[in-house]
Every structure is written in C-alpha cells, then in structure tokens.
Specification:
The protein is flat. The protein has two domains: 76 residues, no CATH class; 81 residues, no CATH class. The chain is 69% helix and 4% strand. It is mainly α and 157 residues long. Helix 1 packs antiparallel against helix 2 and helix 3 crosses helix 4. It has a two-stranded antiparallel ribbon with strand order 1-2.
Length: 157
C-alpha cells in the first residue's frame, strides 16, 4: 500500500494557524451575544470561554510545532482510513453549511446519522435512535442550561 507523509512540524504550524484563524472568527461572533450580569451570565459567556480555550490550544500547537525537529515526518492515512477522514471533513463542512438553513435539530441529527454510518457498523435503527437522542440532549443543554440560542433554520420559520 502506498502511503504519503509530510513534515510533522509544518502540520502542527498549519493546523495551529487554521485554529487561530477560525477561533478569531468564532470569538468575533461570540462578542455579539449578550454578556448578561455577574449574577446571571448571558449567552456570550460559554462561547467566549470555548473560544479562548481554542485560541490557547492553537497557540500551544504552533509553539509545539516550532520546537520540533524539522526532519520529523508523519504518515498520512491511506485506503479505508483516508476515506473515513475525508468523509468526516465533508460531513463537518456540510453540517456547518446546513445548520442555518435546517436548524440545529435537523442538521445535528443528519450529521450524527451519516457520521455513525461512516464510522460504525451499527444498524440503521440504532443509528437513527442514537442520533435523535444526541440532538435532543444537545438542544436542551444549549437552550435551557447554557441559555445559548440555537439556529431554528430559515426553512422552518
């Protein structure tokens, strides 16, 4: 089987850079949410905590990559593993594109269904049941516990 590889240092630097770029956008959107008061935090608190954590993780990743030996290489997945990785990336992109149009519940359910189908050998009945359960739990955690509004979707207004 033919495999390919790339410099581990470059991979760390690129992934950390992408992380910083996307985290900056995420934090920018987070600051548009209400902060609330000290006794009753608003919807912005959790996303800002997550954004700052992701930004620190990206900076640490870049720092670690900077410290690595330039000659060290990492093998890229091949065959079935590469197909699963590409499928995951396509599903994530599709999920983020679909969420504003279909809303959180439908897009999360579809994402989980397709992800579990690609990554596991479970039956369709179990996949659908687990996906709906996860989407319901995500909805209630964000809407009622964290008070973060989730997209309803423009197709369902």
């Amino acid at each position: 089987m033919k495999t390919s590889s790339l410099r581990k240092r470059n991979a760390y630097l690129v992934i950390g850079g992408f992380g910083l770029f996307f985290t900056a956008g995420y934090l920018g959107m987070s600051f548009q949410l209400p902060f609330g008061q000290i006794h009753q935090p608003g919807a912005a608190v959790f996303p800002i905590i997550v954004g700052v954590t992701l930004m620190l993780a990206s900076l640490i990743t870049m720092w670690e990559g900077w410290q690595m030996d330039k000659a060290e290489r990492v093998d890229l997945p091949a065959g079935k593993d590469r197909k699963r990785l590409v499928s995951l990336i396509v599903l994530l992109v599709g999920y983020f594109i679909a969420m504003p149009y279909l809303g959180q519940f439908i897009s999360s359910t579809l994402f989980c269904i397709f992800l579990m189908r690609v990554m596991s050998e479970l039956s369709w009945q179990r996949i659908v049941a687990y996906s709906m359960l996860m989407s319901i739990v995500i909805y209630f955690v964000f809407m009622f516990l964290l008070k973060v509004p989730m997209p309803c979707g423009i197709l369902f207004f």
